[in-house]
Design a protein that fits this description.
This protein has 348 residues and is α/β, with parallel strands linked by helices. It is built from nine helices and 18 strands. It folds into two domains: 171 residues, Medium-chain alcohol dehydrogenases, catalytic domain (Quinone Oxidoreductase, Chain A, domain 1, Alpha-Beta Complex), CATH 3.90.180; 136 residues, Rossmann fold, CATH 3.40.50. The chain binds nicotinamide-adenine-dinucleotide (NAD) and zinc ion (ZN). Its cofactor is Zn(2+).
């Protein structure tokens, strides 16, 4: 079969011929129906160096995956061949307290995980191929009725990551609250939809691209702002001087972190999701009083079940642009150039 592989750090992915995987005991092979292209993959190609994470290339890219069960290893029960499924992306040991409650991103026994601190497409082979081996059957979740794998795939990261971040701040997202989404790309546009579907807060979308703002409005944003020198002030004006109760930064650059801190309301949340390499100097008087600054990484398995439910009910619907496997590199190029709308999904 063909697979899009990252051969090394600081290198471009290559479409190569590899063996089809076969499942060992407790494992599942998924026939890929959709594999999302995430901006994190661009970071893997261009920004990461050996030692940044506890795993290394080569591996097949693609950490947001859905499709159909293709083959079951010995001892796997509760799944049937042909069944539509999503793959929960972060793979922990399965037995520590965190993994038991479904929070694999924070596995406390990573030495026993299939790959320490990673998953398929992050150290082990991912879904940018015709088939993908999932080493633990518990990571394969049946899709609720009516959810297309092409849409389920981005929900496993571009949906799950904002859902987890938003859920953490639900208590601050009442009817009189405002949420700001910075970066209305793959994650951000789904984030806007999740805010509208699960909270009564007003939503302000911020991006450097007009097309992204248009998408933000299509997704339900109440206001959209091109980011510039005055954006924090515009956010204050739009909120009666208060600022944003919750800022979700899906970029994570110096400029967006500074914007988030300047636009946040006292006692608000500033949540850093984007891994744009920026830093924010924090001191007692440098951010509004009692603003909580937090990072989030991916989400839990129970949260993925909830996101898939939102998807099946049509409350959240990623704007997916599909690409065949041999054009996956085009999808990444468009993402890098800022000409992609929503999420690119590779359909092998
Ligand atoms: P994307 O390329 O699809 O979207 C990024 C968006 O941000 C684009 O619309 C772009 O125009 C906008 N943008 C860029 N610079 C900006 C700026 N200075 N101000 C305002 N908007 C700006 O990327 P994505 O796939 O949505 O990923 C977003 C970030 O989140 C990446 O850094 C990615 O690695 C990271 N990520 C983090 C997690 C996590 O668990 N924390 C999970 C997935 C992705
Ligand atoms: Zn990702």
């Amino acid at each position: 079969m063909r697979a899009l592989r990252l051969p090394n750090w600081k290198s471009e992915p290559e479409l190569v011929e590899v063996d089809e995987p076969t499942p060992g005991p407790g494992q599942v092979v998924v026939k890929i129906g959709g594999a999302g292209a995430c901006h994190s993959d661009l970071h893997l190609m261009h920004d990461f160096e050996a030692g940044a994470v506890p795993w290394n290339p080569p591996f097949t890219l693609g950490h947001e995956n859905a499709g159909w069960v293709h083959a079951l290893g010995d001892g796997v029960s509760g799944l049937t061949v042909g069944q539509p499924v999503a793959v929960y992306g972060p793979w922990g040991c399965g037995t520590c307290e965190r993994c038991r409650v479904g929070v694999d991103p924070y596995c406390e026994n990573v030495a026993e995980a299939p790959v320490p601190g990673g998953g398929g497409g992050l150290g082990l082979d991912g879904g940018m191929a015709e088939y993908m081996l999932v080493p633990q059957a518990r990571q394969v979740l049946p899709l609720p009725d009516g959810l297309d794998p092409v849409l389920a795939a981005p929900l496993t990261d571009a949906g799950l990551t904002p859902y987890h971040a938003i859920r953490r701040s639900w208590a601050k997202l009442g009817p009189t609250s405002t949420a700001v989404v910075i970066g209305v790309g793959g994650l951000g546009h789904v984030g806007v939809q999740i805010l509208k579907a699960t909270t009564a807060a007003r939503v302000i979308a911020v991006d450097t691209r007009e097309e992204a703002l248009k998408l933000g409005e299509e997704c339900g944003a109440d206001l959209a702002m091109l980011s510039g020198a005055d954006t924090a002030q515009e956010i204050r004006q739009a909120t009666g001087g208060r600022g944003a109760d919750v800022v979700l930064d899906f970029v994570g650059a110096d400029a967006t972190l500074a914007l988030g801190a300047a636009a946040a309301r006292t006692v608000g949340d500033l949540t850093i999701v984007g891994i744009g390499g920026g830093t924010l100097p924090v001191g007692f008087f440098s951010v509004p009083y009692e603003v909580s600054i937090q990072t989030t990484y991916w989400g839990s398995r129970p949260e993925l079940i909830e996101v898939l439910e939102l998807g099946a009910r049509g409350l959240v619907k990623p704007k997916a642009s599909t690409f065949p496997l041999d054009e996956a590199v085009v999808a990444y190029r468009k993402m890098r150039d800022g000409t992609l709308e929503g999420r690119a999904v590779v359909v092998p």
